[in-house]
Write a structure and sequence with these properties.
homodimer; about 500 residues; mainly alpha; Methane Monooxygenase Hydroxylase, Chain G, domain 1; two-stranded parallel ribbon; ion channel (chains A, B); ion transport (chains A, B); transport (chains A, B); transmembrane (chains A, B); membrane (chains A, B)
């Protein structure tokens, strides 16, 4: 559209100039010059567009340099295959084996090791299976005479292609063998269509499958040996990152709500990006599922065994998402125009802030548990902290309730309440009370996350945190003194509050 | 896993039998028989698994017969291509042109017309562009002598493959040209690697591109002419369906909450599936985005023009999702153990039910607007209805507030309140009040949906609903009598309530 507009405006401008050109006869305003100016404008627009595009690409590269490394790896693998086949004499040109090796590398090389292995397996299995089937069909067809040959081949292609296409609609097949089904159809049709005789076909199939295996092995080796990106590790990191984002948004939202006086300095204020971190959690389902699927295929890497329970991460993801939905509700409640009066906010702010910071401490501790692959010694304590903060909040709501019924209050207090009762109405308290009850809801959802993480810790046999550290923590709890340990700030923060 | 368990139990059973076999020497318990039984068990397990799989596949087919039709279409297109090339003499076998036609059909044939067109364009453009570039590189390389030839080709493959791979990380490229970039890399490497001389290459490229164009044209024709599935229509239907689900969940949730006495008959009760309809809305973002992308490429079909504003559907989807988040919060509030006392629930039930049914009427009317592509004449009225119901609800909350402060009440009422004031506390009212405030929040989010749908109606130039119908509706509003029109039940329901 922008392009078209540019052209149109260029035309208009040319017409205007055309009117003017009758006055002056200097060659600069002649048709050649006009076309030149028009082209210049067009080029400038194009250059600007390309520049913007390159800028964006640069940002993506700077943000995640591993993407750039992946591209260089892909380029390298392809160059190796290409040069090997280029420098060796190729008798059949593009139609020969070179093609299959190059094609395999282009199609199979993926960002993560798991994805590459998955595609490789799909390609090898799909090709082999289809090759054998097509071989059988070809043999039967060639026996049945020239008249029936095309009939048998046509019918078999139709049946198998339809069936394989349909299998791609079945979720369990789609998740794992989508590419394999495609390759199956492709290979089967190619072999069935080929005019080769059966004996020649056999030699060809052997060559082709070995070429594909060489291509896939090259891809797997390159992805695994040069700066490998493991789907499992990515899923692991994504889960940790999402937890941190969740904790950040939760704490930030509540802090922002109770900071209407602008007490926080501008530099301390949470940027929108941090507050809206939970949105990433809302949208990460598809990524998590595909990662978990790929991770199953990866060999032991880093701190993960081959049979690491990756499926459990999906459960953790689901519980985080359920928590993020509530934070979304919390956020909309903070954005609403209907605000509680300042003095009620002040009254509630301490308890609410305590619940939100304790809750986010629990989430951060869970993130640490996953990050370090060690059972946390302080998580039970932190959960208890959170529960007691929730209890305090509930009591505070109760006391608000008594504020609303002046009969009881008049007996106990006298001066202040008279003014208060005349102003406090349920509608005024409501925004804060809703915020509070959402916080309570969120804390119960956090307990679900705790459960799923504990399951993960049990199934994956996480080790206990170092015993001495645990003892030290216990000692700190008993003495209730601020700790000087810097490496465990999160736990300590919670302890200080206790 | 299930498979493995089966095997183990088979083994155990064999050992037990083995112990018993020392007593009786009948041949039925001999090792052959044991292996036979074990194999039988294994086979039974396998057959059961296959049976389950086929059952699942059958269900998928029955649920959406168009999937089956798509598979038959794919099979047909492939059979046509295969047979054409099978019956014509093929001089080069699989390596020749047949391969490219078959491959094109397998890879390009997609479920929707838009997706097929998108892949076809990607394939043709990617191949052509890469072909010309590779041709140039080849020419330069062949001029520079045998020594530099592999160097130039290797460097160009490395650079272009890396760049093209990187471009696939850029969201705007990923969304539209992902497949094209892949094909670009593939074609470029293949042509660069090929040992052909430049003049032969030209003839080959011409043949190949024309084969690919024939293949893509066949695919596009088959998808468009035989029971076409349009991405645009799918997106349109998905949006309508999601709206209906949203309306159903909203109404169902609130009805269930206020129906603790089991007044609804079992047959009237909303099945869980309906209540959880909003979950579909939460997860439909990716589908909507790809559909909108494909729909842009589709020609005018059915009631949609070529330039139908498909992007606006994404905005509608986003506003629906925001509404679904609140319904999620509503649902968790209904599931919570913390329930309000029965008499408060009864007091609030009418207003809440009115808000929820009016809200869902608005959503249903919006769904109808989209479904019929006609501006609704009653939507303003329905939105007003909803707003007034929300106002009533707010008043009801206010009156609850006065119930809580007995001082005022003791003056006006006497008998009942004494008992009431002693029991009502803020904490007890809270669950219902939170539900009510969520309903208010949802109704404001519904107004966002109304706005996005109105934008769609303006941009896509929806027609007004037939004038006579509008007049009739207006008359009904004035007379407030139940209408006998059956084709417009939804509007009428709302009118009856007015």
């Amino acid at each position: 559209m922008a392009h078209q507009e540019k052209e149109t405006s260029g035309l208009e401008w040319r017409i205007t100039l055309g009117d003017g050109s009758s006055k002056s006869l200097v060659p600069e305003t002649g048709p050649v010059s006009r076309i030149w100016m028009w082209l210049k404008g067009l080029m400038a627009g194009l250059v600007l567009k390309v520049w913007k595009f390159l800028n964006k690409a640069w940002d993506i590269g700077v943000e995640d340099p591993r993407k750039v490394i992946h591209c260089l790896k892909a380029g390298m693998a392809l160059t190796v295959v290409s040069l090997v086949y280029f420098t060796r004499p190729l008798y059949e040109g593009v139609g020969g084996n070179a093609m299959w090796a190059v094609m395999t590398v282009v199609v199979v090389f993926e960002n993560t090791v798991g994805a590459t292995i998955s595609k490789s397996l799909n390609r090898v299995i799909g090709t082999t299976l289809a090759g054998f089937l097509a071989f059988g069909v070809h043999w039967v067809a060639s026996l049945s005479g020239q008249k029936f040959e095309p009939l048998i081949i046509g019918a078999s292609v139709f049946l198998l292609a339809s069936a394989a296409t349909f299998s791609r609609f079945i979720p369990s097949v789609k998740a794992r063998f989508d590419y394999g089904a495609l390759i199956f159809i492709l290979t089967f049709s190619l072999v069935a269509v080929s005019g080769y005789r059966v004996d020649k076909l056999f030699a060809l199939a052997h060559q082709r499958i070995s070429t594909i295996i060489i291509g896939t092995c090259l891809c797997i080796l390159v992805t695994m040996l040069i700066c490998p990106i493991w789907a499992g590790q990515e899923l692991h990191a994504l889960t940790c990152r999402n937890m941190d984002k969740l904790a950040g948004s939760l704490e930030g939202c509540v802090e922002e709500y109770f900071d209407n006086n602008g007490e926080l300095e501008d530099s301390d204020k949470h940027p929108d990006k941090k507050l809206l971190g939970y949105k990433c959690v809302l949208n990460s389902k598809t990524t998590e599922e595909s990662m978990a699927n790929f991770a199953r295929l990866e060999p032991a890497h880093g701190r993960f065994n081959f049979k690491h329970p990756w499926q459990q991460y999906l459960k953790i993801g689901a519980s985080m998402r359920s928590c993020a939905y509530s934070i979304e509700a919390l956020n909309s409640c903070i954005d609403s125009e209907n605000q509680a009066p300042e003095f009620i906010k002040k009254r509630m702010s301490n308890v609410c802030l305590k619940v939100s910071s304790n809750s986010s401490c629990v989430i951060k501790e869970l993130a640490k548990t996953i990050k370090t692959l060690k059972k946390s010694s302080s998580i039970d304590f932190l959960v208890e902290e959170m529960s007691s903060a929730v209890q305090d909040l509930q009591n505070e709501i109760k006391s608000l309730s008594s504020l609303l019924s002046p009969a009881e209050l008049l007996l106990s207090e006298s001066k202040e309440t008279e003014k208060t009762t005349s102003t406090i109405h349920l509608l005024e308290v409501l925004p804060v009370v809703i915020l509070a009850s959402l916080l309570i809801d969120i804390s119960s959802r956090i307990q679900d996350i705790v459960k799923t993480v504990e399951e993960l810790a049990n199934v994956a046999e996480f080790k206990e945190e170092a015993d001495d550290k645990a003892k030290q923590n216990q000692a700190n709890i008993n003495r209730i003194v601020p700790s000087q340990q810097n490496d465990d700030q999160q736990t300590m923060k919670a302890l200080e509050r206790a």
